[in-house]
Write a structure and sequence with these properties.
InterPro entries: DUF6928. There is one protein chain. The protein is α+β, with helices and mostly antiparallel strands. It folds into 2 domains: about 10-210, no CATH class; about 225-270, no CATH class. The protein has helices at about 20-25, 35-45, 95-100, 155-160, 175-190, 225-235, 260-270, 275-290, and strands spanning about 10-15, 50-55, 70-75, 75-85, 105-110, 115-125, 130-140, 140-145, 200-205. The chain has a 9-stranded antiparallel β-sheet with strand order 2-9-3-4-1-5-6-7-8, sandwiched between helices. The longest helix is centred in the C-terminal third of the chain and has 18 residues, at about 275-290. The chain is globular and about 85 Å long.
Amino acid sequence: MTSRMPNPGTVVTLWFVNTDQPLAAVTSGTHADRGFGRKYLAQLNPRWPITPIGQFPLNRSVPASADEFYIAGYPHVTMVQTVRDDILELSTIDPRLLHSLPAEDVYIFAVNTTTGYAGCAHFSAAGGDLQPQRLFAAKRNRVYEDVGLPEPFEQPLWAGEVSPPSDDPLDLPFAPTDFVTAAHQHWLGFTVDAQGPSLFVSAFAVDGRPEPKVAAPRAKHSMEHLIESSAKKLQLHPADRDYDDYERPLQEVPNTSLPIKDTLVSGVKQASAVVGSIAGSLYQAWKHRKR
């Protein structure tokens, strides 16, 4: 039997959802609230030294690293992303994390691109406490967890219509990462990639690192200031009087051009049920072939 070693560096993303329209919530224009993220982490573990490390769109950034949390709060939807090196079965996720926010539905997505491990889980509180509805976690050559009935989005995956085929006929007919992507689209209505909505997050570290220093933006100067400065550097400012014409009386200087400032200004201006049954049949056929 294969050793059940943990996957180092597995990125785990939790969505706490209290709406039937999570896509509408994340596209409502609400931006990341650093204050909310700090309070959330302080309640999750009061001993952590919490350091803000940035704000940016999640789907245009690298995922969280060890000892980091990416947090985004939207109306009725909250996302928390972190890294766990001890996760294989999502049913064993830290209960403090699973129950860290009240939610009717909690969706978990876990991916380790190095090992090929991926998994997803849906917990529902329809009956009171959070109960598992569908959990699946695997590498291509091994299933770690399979709880609940197959859902309609799984049919093309079990039919081998999504992922490139594996060289080993006993492998799953799909890459687990493709399963997670399909589940994300089906459960939440979007995916976290360049084609999905911009998901702005507040990022924090909990390992005691100092807050990154950001250089102050350079002061903006008016066009008047820039023209005066440029003229002075070119020794064209009346106060410099470094050439002979400034020694002559003003009336003797030929008026051959506009004042330098006006000249510069002028130049600048110009310039479901049936499908679920089929998915279940395909899954059972794969399990029978696996024996």
